[in-house]
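Quick review question:
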């Protein structure tokens, strides 16, 4: 009977396949037929283990008198004295011999009990040393703001080309825009269900509200390093420790607004009511920030008029007059057949790109597994991984999702676009404007008379352009 095991910590270890090969060689040299091979992959055997070892548990069911249990080294059976005592009792009760490191032990014999017990103590101490090293590394990475844990959706690992080791994470060019766009839609007041349905059309992964909600409130996407809090001695929710070393996908303001929207709700927010046509769409030409509603000067008849203004107060423009300029441009688009035809065009794309991208990503994952399990030298694996990552980047550019909003398509193909426009709610009108043009507002000079359209720059944007 052969038992193999490997945990995530592969330093100086062997993959389960290599362990099995060496154990089979021992069996062949001794003329022992192999009745069964039991394997626990990615399973720790220390006293800190959080996962069961189902195959190891089966030993009590399958071992028979006269069998020999063969493992590669004593730590494969367990890294704690509790495991050793249980295994020794099982072997003596079943009259089973134990073999590891090419040696055969009879656990009824005092000398063999002493030797195997000492080996078990050494394995336990080694596990403690490994745990201390890992905790020191985690504390150091936390202090430096380095990433930890599995790579979140929207990011990918960057590896050293010589060693194959991870050097950090960067936004995935094909998925990071999806996270940013989903956040924008939620903050713009789209129903959460519609955002879930939209992202599923862009990257079909079986999205649901809970999955997208976890991403929307995760501080990692705003570049924050988190650490797991302890609640009654157990792992609790993630808490922000400080800024991380990776490039954020969302801004601090977006993260805080999303957290506030989801606070106290098990489902997604219903959406923030949108009140103004160009807030968060038009940008200041001086500082590049979005403009928002602000209070302007006093009207002649009393009261204040509203203005669009950036947070730095670089520009301020009468809201009603500016809206009129943009609505005039929209009228021109919706009444010009050539403009409507251009909006109705479907951006060209390579239909084979998604399948090729999936294949390349799988090949890269296979190479990473080969490196991790010691079957491929790190330097060779790093060179292969670098080539695959370059190919993936090329195909990602071809498979980048196209953010064509349905409202643009509906207006471009409607029998009477102006009539449909008149029926659209404000949020849909804003989506059309955002998708078809970029708007910047510049200074015109304090107190100087100007036309409403002066210093407003409108640049057409084709459907599918990011921004």
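Suggested answer, residue by residue:
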């Amino acid at each position: 009977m052969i038992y193999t095991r490997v945990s995530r910590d592969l330093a100086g270890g062997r993959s389960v396949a290599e362990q099995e090969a060496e154990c089979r060689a021992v069996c062949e040299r001794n003329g022992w037929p192999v009745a069964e091979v039991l394997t626990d992959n990615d399973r720790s055997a220390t006293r800190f283990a959080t996962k069961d070892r189902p195959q190891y548990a089966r030993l009590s069911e399958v071992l028979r008198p006269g069998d020999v249990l063969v493992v590669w080294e004593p730590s494969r059976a367990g890294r704690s004295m509790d495991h050793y005592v249980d295994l020794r009792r099982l072997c003596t009760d079943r009259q089973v011999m134990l073999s590891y490191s090419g040696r055969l032990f009879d656990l009824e014999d005092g000398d063999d009990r002493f030797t195997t017990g000492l080996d078990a103590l050494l394995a336990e101490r080694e596990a403690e040393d490994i745990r201390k090293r890992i905790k020191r590394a985690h504390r150091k990475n936390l202090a430096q703001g380095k990433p930890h844990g599995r790579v979140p959706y929207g990011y990918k690992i960057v590896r050293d080309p010589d060693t194959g080791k991870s050097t950090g994470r960067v936004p995935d060019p094909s998925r990071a825009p999806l996270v940013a766009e989903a956040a924008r839609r939620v903050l713009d007041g789209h129903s959460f269900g519609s955002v879930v349905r939209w992202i599923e059309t862009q990257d079909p992964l079986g999205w649901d509200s809970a999955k997208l909600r976890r991403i929307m409130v995760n501080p990692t996407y705003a570049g924050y390093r988190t650490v797991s809090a302890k609640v009654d001695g157990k792992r609790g929710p993630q808490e922000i420790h400080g800024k991380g070393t990776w490039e954020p996908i969302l801004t601090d303001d977006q993260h805080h607004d999303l957290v506030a929207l989801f606070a106290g709700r098990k489902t997604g927010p219903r959406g923030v009511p949108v009140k103004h046509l160009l807030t968060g769409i038009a940008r200041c030409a001086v500082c590049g920030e979005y403009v928002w509603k602000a209070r302007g000067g006093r009207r002649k008849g009393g009261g204040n008029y509203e203005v669009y203004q950036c947070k730095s107060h670089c520009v301020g423009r009468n809201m009603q007059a500016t809206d009129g300029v943009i609505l005039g441009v929209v009228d021109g688009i919706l009444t010009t057949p050539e403009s409507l035809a251009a909006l109705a065009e479907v951006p060209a794309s390579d239909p084979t790109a998604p399948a090729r991208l999936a294949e390349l990503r799988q090949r890269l994952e296979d190479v990473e597994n080969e490196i991790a399990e010691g079957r491929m030298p790190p330097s060779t694996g790093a060179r292969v991984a670098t080539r695959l990552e370059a190919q993936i980047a090329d195909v990602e550019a071809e498979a980048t999702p196209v953010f064509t909003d349905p409202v643009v398509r509906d207006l471009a193909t409607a029998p009477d676009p102006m009539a449909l426009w008149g029926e659209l709610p404000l949020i849909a009108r804003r989506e059309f404007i955002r998708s078809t043009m970029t708007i910047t507002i510049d200074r015109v000079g304090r107190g100087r008379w100007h036309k409403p359209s002066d210093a407003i720059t409108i640049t057409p944007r084709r459907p599918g352009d990011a921004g």
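Why it works: Residues 171-262 form a domain with the Hect, E3 ligase catalytic domain fold fold (CATH 3.90.1750.20). The CA atoms of residues 284 and 441 lie 5 Å apart.
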